[in-house]
TrEMBL record:
Gene Ontology biological process: iron-sulfur cluster assembly
Keyword Ion transport recorded: no
GO cellular component term, pick one: cytosol
Main localization category: cytoplasm
Ubl conjugation among keywords: no
Cofactor: how and how many bound: Binds 3 [4Fe-4S] clusters per homodimer. Contains two stable clusters in the N-termini and one labile, bridging cluster between subunits of the homodimer.
Organism in which the protein naturally occurs: Brassica napus
Positions of region (Disordered): 1-30
Molecular function via GO: 4 iron, 4 sulfur cluster binding; ATP binding; ATP-dependent FeS chaperone activity; iron-sulfur cluster binding; metal ion binding
Listed name of the protein: Cytosolic Fe-S cluster assembly factor NBP35
Keywords in alphabetical order: 4Fe-4S, ATP-binding, Cytoplasm, Iron, Iron-sulfur, Metal-binding, Nucleotide-binding
HAMAP family noted in UniProt: Mrp_NBP35 (MF_02040), NUBP1 (MF_03038)
Length: 345
């Protein structure tokens, strides 16, 4: 981003986000971008050379973004990484959600620590071909709050990029915090020279979430990051009827066993159907319509699947083993195949 790349909502006489006076000049007063511009790195950074050298062993870099928190972005990042590793790719997952790191939990790595070698920081490995880096590994306990301002966050992100020894990897998945903040500006600036394949944006169907996704798409366009596509997560609740819990209306009496017994006796074939329910209002057309309007790819929908929630809680892949998700795994696989295809075009 050059000094001349002025945000559309900037004040008159904006000096530009890369100017030394960005966020500090009189013309910046009251600008919605003032804090982000003031804390973002300015001018040529000598560490960019070291970052470029580290990233030279990384073939593809994917950012995973969201407009709001709680839409399943980190779950998607974790399962994307599991899926790529399951295809025998060498994968790195970098968690730059400094104040809300969830990757140690979502990959079953709680309690692990980062180790230093003569080559740099070593990621924590889930499998031989899936390494993870997160501030969560650096905290004394998982309840410890990270209360940092922008410059300190930027410094840690830079350290993750220039000091972590990823080895030769095929994919680096970067799980970013929600919104467009210091972390986003920093990661784009640090990686821009090394090439970012693009960003995947995760949302839920309702308009209150899509409002912020539009801003996320706008951010990507302004900073020159291709949008690989948008994923509509929690797109309706889907689960096998046999897994549904039934309650008497107006009471807390569980009648599940009665219902299941009745179905087994009278209509056993119904136990193999999916029970679906719209959880969020998507009457506005959801993410698919928004993508058409904004000219970005729509990658697909992932249902709200209790099995996927369980896999995420246990830090497991939803694609194999006892945690294989019959409902959400096929949807995720289809989305991931679209992403990989778009990166090879």
């Amino acid at each position: 981003m050059e000094n001349g790349d002025i945000p559309e909502n900037a004040n008159e006489h904006c000096p530009g986000p890369q100017s030394e006076s960005a966020g500090k000049s009189d013309s910046c007063a009251g600008c919605p971008n003032q804090e982000a511009c003031a804390t973002a790195p300015k001018g040529p950074d000598p560490d960019l050379v070291a970052i470029a050298e580290r990233m030279s062993t990384v073939k593809h870099k994917i950012l995973v973004l969201s407009g709001k928190g709680g839409v399943g972005k980190s779950t998607f990042s974790a399962q994307l990484s599991f899926a790529l590793a399951g295809m025998d790719h060498q994968v790195g997952l970098m968690d730059i959600d400094i104040c809300g790191p969830s990757m140690p939990k979502m990959l079953g790595l709680e309690g692990h620590e980062i180790h230093q070698s003569n080559l740099g920081w070593s990621p924590v490995y889930v499998e031989e071909n899936l390494g993870v880096m997160s501030i969560g590994f650096m905290l004394p306990n998982s309840d410890e709050a990270v209360v940092w301002r922008g410059p300190r966050k930027n410094a840690l992100i830079k350290q993750f990029l220039k000091d972590v020894y990823w080895r030769d990897i095929d994919y680096l998945v970067v799980d970013a915090p929600p919104g467009t903040s210091d972390e986003h500006i920093s990661i784009v600036q640090y990686l821009q020279a090394t090439g970012i394949d693009g960003a995947i944006i995760v949302t839920t169907p309702q308009e209150v979430s899509l409002i912020d996704v539009r801003k996320e798409v706008s951010f990507c366009k302004k900073v020159g990051v291709p949008v690989l596509g948008v994923v509509e997560n929690m797109s309706g609740l889907s689960q096998p009827l046999a897994d549904v819990k039934f309650m008497e209306i107006g009471s807390s009496i569980d009648v599940t066993q009665d219902v299941i017994s009745c179905l087994r006796e009278n209509a056993p074939e119904l136990l193999n159907v999916l029970a679906c329910s719209e959880v969020f209002d998507s009457s506005g057309g959801g993410a698919e319509r928004m993508c058409r309007e904004m000219g970005v790819p729509f990658l697909g929908k992932v249902p709200l699947d209790p099995q996927l929630c369980k896999a995420a809680e246990q830090g497991k892949s939803c694609f194999e083993g006892n945690n294989k998700c019959s409902v959400s795994a096929p949807a995720l696989k289809s989305i991931i195949q679209k992403v990989l295809a778009s990166m090879t075009e």
